[in-house]
Amino acid sequence: MEKHFYIVIVCALMSLHLLLVQGARQGQDIKCGACRALVDEMEWAISQIDPKKMIQTGSFRINPDGSQSVREVPFSRSESHLLELMEEVCERMNDSLTPESALSFFMRDFSQCETIVEQHEDELIEFFAHETDNVKDKLCSKRTDLCDHALKIPHDEF
Fold first, then answer.
1. Number of domains into which the chain is organized
2. What is the pTM of this model?
3. Nearest CA to 134 among 155, 156, 106?
4. Which segment of the chain is annotated as a signal peptide (predicted)?
5. Residue 23 within any structural domain of the chain
6. CA nearest 109: which of 30, 39, 55, 43?
7. 108 DSSP assignment
């Protein structure tokens, strides 16, 4: 009788462990999906800006040699534009959700998107200002570890 009791306890503990692991994995999937959706939305918003539109950045002070440290960068990838996009991106993604969209699964907790933007603002600006290839993998997997469990997920699976 005592042997059966231990078997039941071991089975219950194993079941509890599996439920906890599955719950943790689902949490990782939600964060990963939210990051990847955020990158998609940011890339789309950047693509809507005329690539020829430029903005001057740097210091407008005159250096001792008479030169200025001003340079022109594409407006779509300027820090000021990227900051503006990051302020709006989560709200815009939330507004565009429908119950049947795949994105709604990852954005059902609206705070996921906002948390990613708040915690990784510097990385987002760095990547979108300079990177154009594989931003999802580089940012969501390698830099922030939000998708470290899913490095082999195809780009558009989420």
1. 1
2. 0.67
3. 155
4. 1-23
5. no
6. 30
7. S
